[in-house]
UniProtKB/TrEMBL annotation:
CDD domains: TIM. It catalyses: D-glyceraldehyde 3-phosphate = dihydroxyacetone phosphate. HAMAP family: TIM_B. It comes from Candidatus Kryptonium thompsonii. This is Triosephosphate isomerase. The keyword Isomerase applies. It is found in: Cytoplasm. GO terms for molecular function: triose-phosphate isomerase activity. Keywords: Cytoplasm, Gluconeogenesis, Glycolysis, Isomerase.
Amino acid sequence: MRKMIIAGNWKMNKDIKETFDFLLPLKNNLIGQNLNVEVVVCPPFTSLFIASDILRETNIKIGAQNMFYEVEGAYTGEISPKMLKSVRCEYVILGHSERRRYFGETDEIVNKKVKKAIEFGLKPIVCVGETLEERENGETFKVLEKQIKGVLEGLTYEQMRNVVIAYEPVWAIGTGRNATPDQAQEAQRFIRELVAGLFNDGIAQNLTIQYGGSVTPENAYSLLSQPDVDGALVGGASLKVDAFLKIIKAGETASVEKKN
Ligand code: PGA
């Protein structure tokens, strides 16, 4: 059965001290617990090293928020998959809508990054999602299909085993307006069926598809208990330990219920 993943996307938040102040209590709360859900924190690059040091020998995983698709060279300001591996990252968020919107990332660029991440043993959390305008124009499925085909283009079945998808409707990100459980379920079932068609049913059934966009302790359980919602990519609510722990707990409850 596929793994439920609760990941915190810190975005451009938390310096070194704030990273300590967040991760120490998180670690103390989760230590020794045998969790069904995989917990991932994605700090900014400057905190990755210290984060992986603090979380050494815990089952909390580290992810980066972006990377470049080259290994090294004259790419001022960029970070490579090799560098992320050296600070013990296991995951990397790719194609987040903020990267697409502010930094011009396209499906083609994201696709190159996905392939490179996997080559270096990183698990990409690949983000897709429609804008409000696209939803209102009835284009949600069309947009998702284009993005999914684009970002997964040319991946082998073997590579697909390392991919995580995050369905993040752009209108729900940072707005306090989450997708309803039904909207998330509908879109995520669509993505799974699409992947079944592009690859095969086994790969689609094993694929973790997270929901992201204004996930809070209050709405997490209703979203995570949907059959095709296998986790959450959490922005704002992942910045406070209490809120993040509550979302992890909601994931744990939903995950145990799905197993039974
Ligand atoms: P949000 O962000 O939870 O603050 O809406 C989610 C994301 O962008 O990954």
